[in-house]
Amino acid sequence: MVAVSVVIPLYNKVQYIERTIMSILSQTFQDFEIIIVDDGSTDGSVEKAETWIDERIKVLKLEHKGASAARNKGILAATAELITFIDADDEWKPGFLEKIIYLKDKYPECGAYATSYEIVLPTKKKIIPSIYQTPEKWEGVFTNYVEKTLKDLPIISSAIAVRKQVFDKIGLFKEGEPLGEDQDMWLRIGMNYSIAYINESNAIYYRGLENSVCMDLTILNRYPIIYSLENLLHKEEIPYIDLYLSKLKLDYSKRLLEANKLDSAWQELQNTKASVYKWQKIKLWLFYYWKKISNKYSFTQKNIIKNARKL
Fold it and tell me: Is residue 87 pLDDT above 50, yes or no?
């Protein structure tokens, strides 16, 4: 049995899947299997994936159901005790798996192991996330995962490994949720297990690429993690839950404003307590009123033009 199962959910990433696979095959730690789960791609992605001749690579197929369904299929097919994920447009640095195995051996009591990452924008600009009260190069165990979310996200899908038995206890990824379903999973893990972490970038997250769900403003589902946090808030006292919830609600409000869903954004902002994030909330209110005025001006201008054409 291999040490690590690598699960790649694949949907229409023909431009990037080769780079992703290459980054896995170039790891300094080589005892792994790769499970590519094609989620009904139509752009030649799966055909490109199938050209790789390596006995460690398996390609599974399912009808288009979303990244969560693809990850779940990969989890169920995995033969290793440790499962890691990488999105089909992201990349690992050569030492990623070696760091994960190091953490697993040093902190065997933990349910998951993760490293920091860097963000690369379409402009090629690089961003290094700032993890709350976690110095650069810090290594250790998150005893309160929620606290670590108060600045940038400490964990992304392409920089974490989870013990397979963890999914037996907390369940699989929530299917049918196109946004935030991964963060909901890390929250569930963090509520039930300690997470070993090293604040050193070993993965590259490419933000804003073509076909990215996050960039599709027609997808406006309320993040599932918001519901999870609201339930936790009502059930038990956990430090920082209210702050994390406020942060996510403000992020969702911003998405609604960008999509010009002003009534929904207004409702979300009204129901968001934001003592720590008050400036972010003020900025979003200003953005809301600017959109309101812009829409009214645009509507008036269109009516003037329409009436002028009737003359």
Answer: yes
